[in-house]
TrEMBL record:
Pfam families: Acetyltransf_1 (PF00583). It comes from Deinococcus aetherius. The keyword Zinc does not apply. It comes from the Bacteria. This is GCN5 family acetyltransferase.
């Protein structure tokens, strides 16, 4: 069967999102998510494209994209996604999508590209290896059932940190209080705590423009669950939750604590308050992901009862 691969058109974003989510239900991504990222990337001057594979009847049966990571930016390095409808796998659609991606990456002078694949996927690891990808860094996606979570064991931690003057306020509360220079302070806090987060590519500064567009103005951001830990007027940690129309699950953004406050329970306190906020918002499941070498955060999540999925491997292609 001959498949047509070309850039997505305006009426095909939702179909692309459905195929992606059917193929990768552990990592749902809606048409609106694809469209938003495409608009952001172009607005920031990055190189990006979303491609679809269509069968002879014009049905979207596969989707692929390349984009650039603003938090680990390099002008010749890309992040990829490739997904084929589960009922249409094994028909050459993935090969056609990769051929189109490869041609575009070559045309743009790419030196490297990364894609995540679950290590238990029946097709992806072999597909990628045969095309010259090499797996290196591993990540765990973990989930917590909010309906079964017991807060009681953590009350002593809350009391202990509270006695030391550590408090937690939400973005909703900070806005209502008229916090001066709020966006600038939130950007500075995120810039501080994200630098040591393990990742496959070196971290680069996240500009104020990107932070405001991609985080503060994200329509999926939950202001009641964007939480800041503070002590004596200084902000010492943060976490945040998002929701996508692709899934009812609550998704964790970045949880981080300033260096001088690490190892003192602040990350656990922030996670606990995020769990509480998620429940108040009607959430039943929180999902998060961490690099396998981020031992401190994995330990926090494990203690709270997050259950790990099979690991995802970051595969890299180098020209």
């Amino acid at each position: 069967m001959i498949f047509t691969v070309r850039p997505v058109r305006d009426g095909e974003w939702d179909a692309a999102g459905r195929v992606y989510t059917l193929a990768l239900p552990h990592d749902p991504f809606s048409g609106a998510d694809f469209r938003k990222r495409d608009a952001e990337q172009r607005g920031w001057g990055y190189t990006t494209a979303t491609l679809v594979a269509l069968d002879p009847d014009g049905e979207v049966v596969g989707v692929a994209s390349y984009s650039q990571n603003p938090g680990a930016y390099h002008p010749r390095r890309y992040t990829l996604e490739v997904a084929v409808h589960p009922e249409r796998q094994g028909q050459g659609i993935g090969r056609a999508l990769w051929d189109a991606l490869h041609a575009d990456l070559t045309r743009h002078g790419a030196e490297a590209a990364r894609v995540l694949a679950r290590e238990d996927h029946p097709v992806a690891p072999g597909f990628l290896t045969r095309r010259g990808f090499t797996g290196d860094k591993r990540y765990f996606t973990s989930s917590l059932d909010l309906t079964a979570f017991d807060e009681a064991p953590y009350r002593a931690l809350e009391d202990r940190l509270g006695a030391r003057g550590v408090g937690v306020r939400s973005l909703t509360e900070l806005r209502a209080a008229g916090t001066p220079d709020l966006a600038a302070r939130l950007h500075a806090l995120m810039s501080d705590v994200r630098g040591d987060v393990p990742r496959a590519e070196p971290a680069t500064p996240l500009s104020r423009e990107v932070f405001e567009e991609a985080v503060l103005n994200d329509p999926g951001l939950l202001p009641d669950a964007y939480l800041v830990a503070e002590h004596d007027g200084r902000w010492i940690g943060q976490t945040n939750l998002f929701r996508s129309e692709a899934s009812p699950d609550l998704l964790t953004g970045l949880t981080g604590v300033t260096r001088e406050w690490r190892g003192q329970g602040v990350a656990t306190l922030l996670k606990l308050r995020a769990i509480r906020a998620g429940r108040a918002l009607g959430g039943t499941l929180i999902r998060t992901d961490n690099a396998s070498d981020n031992a401190p955060m994995l330990a926090v999540n494990d203690r709270l009862g997050f259950v790990r999925d099979p690991a995802s491997v970051s595969y890299v292609w180098r020209r």
